[in-house]
Structures are given as C-alpha cells and as structure tokens.
Design goal:
Layout: H1 2-19, E1 24-31, E2 39-48, H2 52-67, E3 74-81, E4 84-90, E5 96-101, H3 107-113, E6 123-124, H4 127-142, E7 150-159, E8 162-170, E9 176-183, H5 190-197, H6 207-210, H7 213-219, E10 223-233, E11 238-247, E12 252-261, E13 269-280, E14 288-297, E15 300-309, E16 317-328, E17 332-344, E18 350-362, E19 379-394, E20 403-418, E21 434-450, E22 454-466, E23 476-478, E24 492-494, E25 496-509, E26 512-526, E27 531-534, E28 537-547, E29 550-560, E30 572-580
Parallel strand pairs: 1-4, 5-8, 9-11
Antiparallel strand pairs: 1-2, 3-4, 5-6, 7-8, 10-11, 12-13, 12-30, 13-14, 14-15, 15-16, 16-17, 17-18, 18-19, 19-20, 20-21, 21-22, 22-25, 23-24, 25-26, 26-27, 26-28, 28-29, 29-30
Helix pairs in contact: 3-4
C-alpha cells in the first residue's frame, strides 16, 4: 500500500507540472501579394513546447514555398505578445522555370547525371531540384580529376514570372595523383597499397576513392593509422597523398590444450592439442600463411594449410590455396586440395570461384575380405566446383563488440567410388559408382553491443552434403571449441547440421572478456547404411584475458546428446594461449 501511495503522489505531481507547462503559439497572417496592405486570414495556428521551435517552423514554411516556385516569399514582420507570435507572410509571385539550357556543360557529363532539358522546362521553379543538379555535376567533376570545379546559373532572364537560364561550369585545374607516401614504420608494398585503396600514381583525382581511404586503412589488420591522411596540392596540377601508419601485430601463434575423458580406458584422461601459426603480411604484400595442426583424439591427427595471396599482378584478383590432411587412426586417410581465385572487395572481403579435389583412402582392410555388405568407409574421389562469398564488418577483429560476419559457399561436382581390390568385390554390385554431389555451407554472426562494455553474439553455422551414397569418411565433423562446445572435438559426423549459438560477453579490456554461452544443434547422419538425427546442446562459461605472453583463454562446458543426462564428470575444459606478433 505504501508503494501505491508513492506512485499516486508522483503521478499527481507530474500532472500538475504538465498543466503549468508553458505553451508557445504561432499564428500566420498572409499579405496579399498584389496589394501588400491587405491582410488575408490564414487557417494556421499551432502550439509548441519551446520558444525557438516557432522560428524553425517559419524557416521550414519558407523552404516549402521556395520548392513550389515562390522564390521571393518572406515574412515581412513578426509580432510577439507574451507567449503568442503572429507572423505576416508575403508569398510573392509564383515563378515558372521556362527552360534550363545545358550551357557549356558537355553532353557526356549531363548524361551521367541524368540531365534532360525537358525535365527542367515549363514547371514551377524548384530551388531544391536546381541545387541537387548542381551537386551531381560537381560530384562528377570531383571524381574525374576536377576537385575545384564550380557551377552557377548564367544568362538569367525573367519575363512575366518566367525564368530562363543556362548552366555555366568552370572546371578549373585538372589534378593528377603524383605520389602516395607512407609516413611511419608500416611494412607494406606499394603494389599492394595501390591495389587496396584503389588509387595509383598517374590516376586522375577521384574524391569518391579519397573518401574511402580512412575506412580502408582502419580495416587492415596489420596497420594502425597514426593520424588522418592528408592531401597536398601543387601548382603543377598534381597532388600527393600522405598516409600515416605504423605496424600492428596481426600474425598469431596459439595453442589449445584439451583435457577429455578417455573413452577407451575408464578413469583415464586424454590430452588433445591444437596448434596454429598464422602469418599475415610477413612480406608486405598483405599475404596470409596459415598452418594448423591438431590432435583431436588418440591416433587421430588433422593438418591444414592455407595460403592467400591478394592482388595478383596489381589486379583485384587473388589466389587462395588450401591443403588438408586428416588421418583417422588406422581406418582412413583424407587428403583435400582446394584452389580458388578471389575477387577482392573492400576490407579483403571477397567472392571466390574454386576447385575442390578430395581423396579418401582406406588404411586398413583387415576383416573386410569376406564381408557381404558395404562397410561404413570407402575409397572415394570427389571433384567439386563452387563459389564462396565472404563479408565481414567488425569494429575489432580480435575481440569485437559490434558488427557482423557472413560466409556463404555452394559447390557441385562428381563423386567416384573406387573398388578396393582387398574387399569382397560383390559388395559393389548394384552400387552406382559415379554420382553427382552437392555441398552447401552458410555461416553468419552478429555482435550486438550492450551498454559500454558488453555484447551479445548471435551466430549460426550450417552445412549440407547431398548424395545418394554417402560414407562416414566424407561427412562433416562437428563438436568442440569452434563449433559445438560441450562435446569432444569433431566427435559427431553429419551430412547436414545447423548450429545456433547465443553468447554474452563482458569486455574487460581490448583483448579480454568473460562469457557465458549456450549452443544447440540439429544434425542428420544420412549414409548408405544408416540414418541418425539428434538435437544436442551445450552450455557453459569462459574467460579470456591478455598477459605479456599472449591472450590466455579457458572455457568450461557441459553437453547433452540423445536422451543421455548431463554429467558434470563429462564436462569439457579447454584452455590455450594466443600470441600476436
């Protein structure tokens, strides 16, 4: 009851204050344009909360009248009485634009800005339209070598409220870029820099590209802008661009150590490893060399290598080569080679066309000599052709607070099942050895900032393999730190999966945060001999903080799969360190 009385009292006070609030009234009377001494009563009367809002409203009314052709409209006088303001409006005569000639402006330029004389003939004189036309012409000149161009209306005549005029463009001096100079200790080749910012010595001055320099420099992971760029113009009709940048540590070395229960020996623990060496811009060409070795489980190893070389021969095209080797104990060996050509957009985002070749071979056929049905694994050769699109926009790539990430990939090709001479050949009867295979992948994530030091990450990872005869050694492998936390690394084989992650991060410092997370998935394992589906989920918390040796991270996660209960003794603990250099 006490709280209700407080609320009632506050409500009464607010109502009382509101009833005493000052209202400012604006009224308008019109002066006859033909006989200025006659007053026309206008049905205009409005109230405003603040006094200066009335003057702003009067200015808006004049701008609207100008756009309708009343270019001499004005308020002759203002009469203020207490909180009431009376304005006397003289609209003047309405003017018509009889025509606007192209004047000395070239046809090519006018075509680019969409000018047609008939669009500017026999219509009310609209100041805003003329202003927009002039801005379009000046923008075109600025982007084509004439940053100091000016334009005005010329040969203006007024007869019986009809205005006739022509355009008069002064391009002034033509500017060419002479040099692009970097001040600071940034290590970057000129060929890469010219291609990345889209400006080269000898190019005409282009204001549209100049304005993008600040954003592009900010998006480079291996450079830090010391201060804003500058442009120096010279009497020789040339200009130099000065960039101020220093080196920023972007290469990284990191190692992750996982402590997992040993599924083969009760009561024992199994150590898994993940070591990565990522070299970015080591040779000043913006290139990437990425090496990753992992020991996921006992007798199983994974090796990945990626080389990206952007702006080949100073073009927007880059080379992307991937190599992967995966050995599953003594069961099979996968070797994947992927070569692609990127078309690079801003911030090293790209569209890539690629060729993907996959070879999977059985390492041991012991016990398969006399089988009567196909085993879970097979010797397979697959060649796919596809496209991939990547678009990232994050405020800070190593520990973002806002932004998004998107990667889409689609591929199709042929799969060939090879007959293994050490396996009973009858199992291949009635099996279509050559088939068409499809593969789709879609990953996306968005960071939503909260208050000043927190963010929420919403992300999804999705993939699908389409084929009539799938084997386990060609499926996706999910689970673990980078896909589905709370489960063993790559412990789930899937032909289709969709993973959703919701994560809250509290940012301690630039490279440090606390997090709690939940991730859930739906997956299908649809092979030639079985179909399995499930909705596993995991949850937990983690900490990542920066030390002199690097960024140390640790996470604790629990997972639930099928109808199994959640056991704390099956929790997954991951910890590691990342060092940028």
């Amino acid at each position: 009851m006490k709280y209700f009385n407080y609320i009632l009292l506050i409500t009464i006070i607010c109502l009382a204050l509101n009833s005493n609030a000052q209202n400012y009234t604006l009224s308008i009377a019109g002066i006859n344009s033909q006989q200025n001494h006659l007053i026309e009563k206008l049905d205009y009367k409005k109230q405003f909360s603040f006094k200066n809002q009335r003057i702003q409203q009067l200015n808006n009314i004049l701008l609207d009248l100008y756009d309708e052709g009343y270019i001499t409209a004005n308020f002759d006088s203002l009469v203020e009485d207490s909180s009431d303001l009376l304005a006397y409006l003289n609209t003047g005569d309405k003017y018509t634009l009889a025509y606007l000639k192209k004047g000395n402006v070239g046809e090519a330029l006018l075509s680019e800005v969409g000018f047609r004389e008939k669009l500017y003939s026999d219509k009310p004189f609209n100041y805003k339209e003329i202003k927009n036309l002039n801005e379009k012409i000046l923008t075109y000149c600025e982007n084509n070598g004439y940053p100091f161009a000016s334009i005005k209306l010329d040969s203006i005549t007024i007869e019986q409220n009809n205005i006739r005029a022509s355009l008069n463009l002064a391009k002034n001096i033509k500017i060419t870029i002479d040099s692009i100079i970097i001040k600071g200790d940034a290590k970057i080749s000129r060929a890469y820099l010219y291609s990345y910012i889209g400006i080269r010595p000898g190019d005409l001055y282009d204001e549209s590209q100049i304005r993008k320099i600040k954003t592009k420099m900010k998006e480079l992971q291996f450079l830090k802008e010391i201060k804003p760029f500058e442009i120096a113009f010279y009497e020789t009709e040339e200009a130099d661009i000065y960039l101020y940048a220093e080196k920023k540590n972007a290469s990284q070395f990191d190692g992750v150590l996982g402590v997992l229960p040993n599924n083969e020996t009760t009561g024992k623990l199994l150590l898994s490893g993940d070591v990565r060496l990522k070299l970015l811009n080591s040779f000043g060409r913006g290139e990437l060399v990425d090496f990753n070795w992992r020991k996921i489980e006992q007798n199983t190893q994974d090796l990945k290598f990626n080389l990206v070389y952007p702006f080949l021969f100073s073009t927007p095209f880059g080379l992307d080569f991937k190599f992967a080797l995966y050995k599953k104990d003594t069961t099979y060996l996968n070797v994947n080679k992927n070569i692609g050509v990127q078309y690079i957009f801003r911030g090293n985002n790209y569209l890539k066309a690629f060729l993907d070749n996959r070879q999977s071979s059985l390492l041991s056929t012991k016990g398969l000599e006399y089988i009567s049905a196909l085993p879970p694994y097979a010797d397979i050769s697959t060649t796919l052709y596809g496209l991939e699109l990547k678009n990232d926009k994050l405020d800070y790539i190593f520990n973002p607070r806002k932004g998004y990430q998107i990667r889409l990939s689609g591929a199709a090709g042929s799969k060939n099942i090879k007959k293994n001479a050490k396996i009973n050949q009858s199992v291949y009867n009635n099996l279509e050895l050559t088939t068409t295979q499809y593969q789709l992948e879609a990953d996306a994530g968005v960071f939503i900032p909260l208050l000043k030091r927190a963010t929420i990450l919403l992300s999804t990872q999705n993939a699908y393999i389409g084929n009539s005869n799938l084997f386990e050694n060609e499926l996706f492998r999910i689970g673990g730190l980078k896909t589905l936390r709370g489960f063993d690394e790559e412990s789930i084989n899937a032909s289709l999966f969709s993973i959703l992650t919701v994560e809250y991060r509290y940012l301690l410092e630039q490279n440090s945060y606390l997090n709690i997370f939940w991730n859930g998935a739906y997956y299908e394992k649809d092979t030639h001999d079985k179909f399995v589906c499930d909705r596993p989920f995991g949850f937990g918390a983690g900490l990542s903080f920066e030390t002199k040796a690097g960024i140390f991270s640790i996470s604790y996660a629990l997972g639930k799969q099928f109808d199994n209960p959640i056991y704390f003794r099956s929790a997954k603990i991951h910890f590691g360190i990342v060092n940028h250099f």
